[in-house]
Specification:
single chain; alpha/beta; Rossmann fold; 9 helices; 5 strands
Length: about 200
């Protein structure tokens, strides 16, 4: 069985709390591990300590702007992927960002699909892109966990209903193990749904 990829860690730096919350929800839904910072001066230290794969950086921030923050990040990590996003794009800041090896420069508000394409490109470049099969396992796992919790069932109770082990059920929910059709059928029966309902919107 293929070892699951570690979660891709994303740091979002934006002084706007609402944007931080939106980005956190948006990226976590796509399976990323997200941290947000509203103070750009904390970003270089966070990058140095926590080994992020991607930094999403606002350009216009009080105290230290995005370009200055990116310069400081580059001193501690020359390889981390950085996407700049701004409500005030200009040729000058775009050029400065690219010189500091930003992978992209997006206008706010951005199109979510466009942003996903940028993130996919970054992950492909870093060898972190999940295969469609891994994505499917993640969707199935999240759907099963959501349905189980909606029904107030513990893993132990699910194990009793399905005849599957707690450890296997836990691995399926965490996308660490691919479930056989027979296991999915037992899980669907225990949750009183059709087997196709476990595939979410896939």
């Amino acid at each position: 069985m293929a070892k699951p990829l570690p979660p891709v860690k994303v740091l979002v730096v934006d002084d706007d709390e609402a944007i931080c919350e939106f980005m956190e929800t948006f990226l976590e839904k796509d399976g990323f591990e997200v941290r947000t910072l509203q103070d750009p001066t904390e970003a270089p230290d966070a990058v140095k300590k926590d080994g992020y794969h991607l930094v999403v950086l606002d350009l216009m921030m009080p105290g230290m702007d995005g370009v200055e923050t990116l310069e400081k990040i580059r001193k501690v990590d020359s390889d981390v992927a950085v996407v700049i996003f701004t409500a005030h794009p200009s040729l000058e800041t775009a050029v400065q960002s690219m010189k500091l090896d930003a992978v992209d420069y997006l206008k706010k508000p951005f199109n979510p699909d466009e942003f996903r394409e940028v993130v996919d490109r970054v992950m492909r470049k870093k060898g972190l892109l999940r295969t469609p099969e891994e994505n499917l396992h993640r969707v199935i796992g999240e759907t099963i966990r959501g349905l189980r919790k909606d029904r107030g069932l513990t893993l132990k109770q699910m194990a009793r209903r399905t005849g599957l082990s707690v450890s296997l059920l836990s691995q399926i929910e965490r996308a660490e193990s691919s479930a056989s059709i027979s296991s999915l059928f037992k899980i669907a029966t225990a949750l009183d749904v059709r087997i196709q309902d476990l595939f979410g919107e896939y």
